[in-house]
Amino acid sequence: MSHIYPADFASAAQQIVNAGQFLNSQGLAPATSGNYSMRLADGTLALTVSGRHKGRLVANDVMQATPDGAALDGKKPSAETALHAQLYKLYPQANAVLHAHSTSGVILTRLRKGDTITLAGYEMLKAFPGITTHETSLSIPVVDNAQDMDVLMAAIAPRLTLGLPAYLIRDHGFYVWAPTMPQAEYMSEALEHLLKCEVELEKISPRSAA
Ligand SMILES: [Zn+2]
To answer: Which is nearest to 57 in space by CA: 28, 83, 81, 36?
Structure first.
C-alpha cells in the first residue's frame, strides 16, 4: 500500500466532517476539543478550523493549509496544526491524522507518571498496522502537556519511531495517524478501547504505583 489520497479538498472536507460525527459518537469529541486533518495529493493539508464542536462540523469548518500548516484560504487554523504537519513530514504513508481528548488517555496518563504506556496481550492490538497477533505489545510514547507547540514538537520528535501509530499527551489526549481516514477512525476507536481496559484494570489491580 502506498499513497491513498482523498480525490480533492471537498472530498477530504467531507471525510473530516464524517470523522467528527464518528468520534463524537464514541465520546471522543467533548466540547470543542480535538482536531482532524488529511493530506491531499498536492501535499497541502485539509484541517479543522479552531473552535468548532467536532460532532457538528460542516464542510466550511475545514480549511486548506500548506504542508507547514499556514492557511491558504484566510481561515484560522487550530493551535495544534503544527503537530499535524510534523506527523505528515515524518510519516510519508500518513494521509489522515486525528487528535482527540480521550477520557481514558487523560485518566491513565494522570495515574501513570512514566513516559510510555505499554499495551500488551490484547486482541484489539490487531487494529494497528503490522500487528497480526495478540501475543505482542505496543508501547505508546507519552509526553507532558504544554501550551507551546514548539515545546510539544521537540518533546515528541525523538519518540516518533518508524511504524509508530499513535502518541499520548499527558492530561490531554492522543494523536493517531494512518493512510486513510477510515483507518485513522478505527485506530482511534481501538486505542480508546485499549486505554479504557487499562483504566478498568487500574481500579481492580492498580499498577500506577509500580
Ligand atoms: Zn488537544
So the answer is: 36
